[in-house]
Amino acid sequence: MPADRPARQPVPPPAPRRPHWGLAVASTVAVAVGLIFVAWAKMETVQITYRIAELRTEEQDLANEQRRLRAELAELRSPPRLDALAPALGLGKPDAGQVFVVTEDPDALEAALHGADAPSADAASADAPSADGPPPAAATPTGDSP
Questions:
Q1: Could you tell me if 43 and 80 lie in one domain?
Q2: Domain limits at 111?
Q3: What does the H/E/C string look like for the chain?
Q4: Residue 37 located in a structural domain
Q5: Dist CA 45 CA 24 (whole Å)
Q6: Is 57 in the same domain as 28?
Q7: Looking at the DSSP assignment, which residues form a beta bridge with residue 101?
Q8: What is the pTM of this model?
Q9: Based on CB atoms within 10 Å of each CB, which residue in 49, 93, 102, 109 is the most buried?
Q10: In b/e form, how buried is each residue of 59-96, taking b as 16+ CB within 10 angstroms?
Q11: pLDDT tens, the chain, 146 aa long
Q12: Of 107, 114, 117, 97, which Cα lies nearest the Cα of 138?
């Protein structure tokens, strides 16, 4: 051996390690909490899925009921049914002069009732409402009476 190197001293054996129970317990608790969270999340997902299925069924039932009610309403509003109910309620066809049509443009109404051409664009612009507001509505009787 060379003289400039000191002699090696033996390395003492390492001290016996005590187990780290704290780390093992903490790891086990963390894994258990994670598993419980995953199980809870899965149960919530299943419950929400069942609720969605119930709501879809309810939506279909309500849509069917809405269709049925619309059909019933159409049947109740049908002219033949109303014509059949009118005499029992003391209602009948109006006499001439009993019906009044209210419109903002009496010339257009007269044209429509008598089959004349519609007023020209010049006449329509002359009858246009002013900045002060729309013209008063005119009541025009329909029928044969003067």
A1: yes
A2: 94-126+135-146
A3: CCCCCCCCCCCCCCCCCCCCHHHHHHHHHHHHHHHHHHHHHHHHHHHHHHHHHHHHHHHHHHHHHHHHHHHHHHHHCCHHHHHHHCHHHCCCCCCCCCCEEEECCHHHHHHHHHCCCCCCHHHHHHCCCECCECCCCEEEECCCCC
A4: yes
A5: 32
A6: yes
A7: 140
A8: 0.45
A9: 109
A10: eeeeeeeeeeeeeeeeeeeeeeeeeeeeeeeeeeeeee
A11: 556 777 788 888 887 777 778 888 999 999 999 999 999 999 999 999 999 999 999 999 999 999 999 999 999 999 999 999 999 999 988 888 888 878 788 888 788 778 755 455 444 445 555 545 455 555 555 555 44
A12: 107
Lookup result for tokens 């317990």 = 25
- Domains held by the chain: number: 2
CA 5, CA 47: separation in Å to the nearest integer? 77
- The residue type of 22 is G
Looking at the structure, tell me whether residues 70 and 112 fall in a common domain: no
